[in-house]
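Weekly structure sync, notes
Attendees: PL (lead), two postdocs, one rotation student
Agenda item 3: pending single-chain targets
PL asked that the sequence for the first pending target be pasted directly into the notes so everyone works from the same version. It is reproduced below exactly as submitted, 338 residues in total.
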Amino acid sequence: MFLICHSLAQSEWTVDFEFRATGPERGGGNLQLWYIKDGRPPEMEAPSVYTIGAFDGLALVIDMYGGKGGGLRGFMNDGSTDYKSHHAVDSLAFGHCDFSYRNLGRPSKVLVKQLADSFEVIVDGRQCFWSDKIKLPSGYFFGVSAASADTPDSFEIYKFVTSTAPGVTRELPRRDPPPQQPPQGGQINDQGSQQALPNAQFAVQFADLQNRLSAISQSIDNVFSEVQSLSAKSDARHQDLSNRVSSNQQLTAMDQKIQSIESTLRSYQGHFSNIQGMVKDSHSTLNEGLTQQMTHIISTKSPKMGTFVVVIIVFQLLLAGIYVMYKRRRANGPKKYL
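Predicted structure, written out during the meeting:
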């Protein structure tokens, strides 16, 4: 997109430019403010400092270059440098500053001043850059262009007003009156002298008024778009609130059920306490009775030590008798000789 404004014949002027940029979190694209000689050259079909070619004039570029939240850079060319084929266009900038302009919720302001002894750019009330070595020619054309990226931003222009310095008059082109033809019949015809010449001042004022009306119309369209957007957001919020109300009703029902369960558990709390006491009593009774019974069984049913000793002695005598009998039988048995 490229929008041509008008040209100024004065050498001292001021441009008051307001815009708003909105887009996704990592959006791209750029906005250019031009002051060039030829109005709209063929290269402006792709309006960007990276694709324009060899232009003659000034370009102020507003973009996300450098990844610092946005910035404004100034480029100048006298028609000798082909920006489209240049290997490092960013290095040709003569001035720059940080300029956060995206998703602010308000218009951003850029003020460009060309005075007799200085050139200055101001963004949102603070100086961006200034130089006393820049003197732009008069009669060039102002223009605004935007270039998009894969995730483009939306640029809305609210204001573009040019004004001349105090005491400087606008130079207008002169038009010579049409040559008068001698009247027929020897009569003097002074109609040509009485014919009103086109007033260039009124023409310029009419063009300026037309530009202002166009800007107002654009602003009205933007306001209507904002109203539609707010209406859509309001409907979405109303739907969200409706969904939340239904969710709150479900939560209320769940809360009632939980309170009912709690009351039921409180009613059974006494029964649980009685059961716990009975279990403790049974456990203590079992511990005491089992200990006493085991002690009685061990003391009454265990074998005596004397009986155990007698059994061992009898067993040993029995083994000794068996061994003696075995030796006698072996000694009285027949012997074999080889």
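Discussion points:
- Confidence is low (pLDDT under 50) at residues 167-198.
- Helices lie at 191-194, 200-267, 269-301, 305-332.
Action: rotation student to compare against the earlier draft before next sync.
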